[in-house]
């Protein structure tokens, strides 16, 4: 078993640490300062409470899970003896590279250095490393403790043993890792997600339907099917001849937007950024954001429980 350290105690960092601890691993996590650490501790306790209330484990087990996580603002202490480090700091190439230079002074040459980046290319991230062969991307999805997928992406110099160790660790964490064979912007999940988001924006901007109906078209149709059959398997069930015929006439009519749509540009320009600002495509005033977030979290937990029943 690897000795795991997580760098960054924000939303993704503390969720990754929580997932590892839930699956029986001791993990150390680095927070920048006392305020970051306090927020991480609160986030972990809230998530543990929700998971216990939904029957994923008992309250006694919840305390044991929390005790497996050590949080510190002393980087040297956090990475001392680590064999696998997952970085989850802000999405800035220069910031990450600067931090890696510092890390390389503190970790062994055989310690795997992984990034949770959602889009930066591994070869770019590893460009200044003395040991780029031990660098890899492990892209967890938010919320990292509930979404099984992790995209594993190697750079041009990433070694086979690094890939194998990443896959082994993620399987120990009971994730569903997939290997992305080529460096490509957005990896796989975000390319699929943003293809759908682009078409949704185009439909809204063209006045084809209201936002509620565009969202309903997903949640009450393909959203019900996709947890079992992804897009390629769905095509097999629908008949490849049918899907080819539709692709041949529909693809040319789909959105080819090269940047954000008019409505999204206007909302962002007005400071309407979604839940965090209280308004976006939807009005998030009052407790609505918390209610929808809780509903989504409970649904994800039901999926996880179903996964565990299936083995």
Automatic annotation (TrEMBL):
Positions marked as site (Important for catalytic activity): 139
One record GO biological process: butyrate metabolic process
EC number: 1.1.1.45
GO annotation, cellular component aspect: cytoplasm
Gene3D superfamilies, A to Z: N-(1-d-carboxylethyl)-l-norvaline Dehydrogenase, domain 2, NAD(P)-binding Rossmann-like Domain
EC class name: oxidoreductase
InterPro entries with a match to the protein in the record: 3-OHacyl-CoA_DH, 3-OHacyl-CoA_DH_CS, 3-OHacyl-CoA_DH_NAD-bd, 3HC_DH_C, 6-PGluconate_DH-like_C_sf, 6PGD_dom2, NAD(P)-bd_dom_sf
Pathway terms, separated by semicolons: Lipid metabolism; butanoate metabolism
Compartments reported by the entry: Cytoplasm
Domain 3-hydroxyacyl-CoA dehydrogenase NAD binding span(s) in chain numbering: 4-182
One term of GO molecular function: NAD+ binding
Keywords for the protein's UniProt record, in alphabetical order: Cytoplasm, NAD, Oxidoreductase, Phosphoprotein
Subunit annotation: Homodimer.
Protein name: L-gulonate 3-dehydrogenase
Species in which this protein is naturally found: Bhargavaea cecembensis
């Amino acid at each position: 078993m690897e000795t795991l350290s997580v760098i960054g105690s924000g939303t993704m960092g503390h969720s990754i640490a929580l997932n590892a601890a839930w699956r029986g691993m001791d993990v150390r996590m680095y927070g920048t300062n006392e305020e970051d650490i306090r927020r991480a501790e609160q986030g972990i306790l809230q998530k543990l409470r929700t998971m216990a209330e939904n029957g994923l484990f008992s309250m006694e087990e919840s305390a044991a899970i929390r005790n497996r996580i050590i949080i510190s603002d002393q980087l040297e202490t956090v990475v001392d003896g680590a064999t696998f480090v997952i970085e989850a700091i802000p999405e800035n190439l220069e910031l990450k590279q600067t931090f890696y230079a510092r890390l390389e002074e503190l970790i062994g040459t055989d310690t795997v250095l992984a990034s949770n980046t959602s889009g930066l290319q591994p070869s770019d991230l590893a460009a200044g490393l003395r040991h780029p062969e031990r660098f890899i991307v492990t892209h967890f999805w938010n919320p990292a403790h509930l979404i099984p997928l992790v995209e594993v992406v190697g750079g041009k110099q990433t070694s086979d043993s690094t890939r194998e160790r990443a896959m082994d660790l993620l399987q120990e964490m009971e994730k569903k890792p997939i290997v992305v064979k080529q460096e490509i912007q957005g990896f796989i999940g975000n390319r699929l997600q943003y293809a759908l988001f682009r078409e949704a924006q185009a439909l809204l901007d063209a006045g084809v339907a209201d936002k509620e109906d565009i969202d309903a078209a997903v949640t009450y149709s393909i959203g019900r099917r996709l947890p079992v059959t992804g897009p390629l398997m769905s095509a097999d069930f629908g008949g490849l001849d049918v899907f080819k015929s539709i692709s041949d006439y529909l693809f040319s009519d789909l959105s080819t937007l090269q940047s954000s749509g008019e409505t999204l540009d206007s909302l962002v320009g007005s400071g309407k950024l979604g839940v965090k600002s209280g308004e976006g495509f939807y009005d998030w005033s009052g407790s609505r954001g918390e209610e929808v977030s809780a509903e989504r979290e409970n649904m994800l937990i039901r999926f996880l429980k179903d996964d565990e029943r299936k083995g």
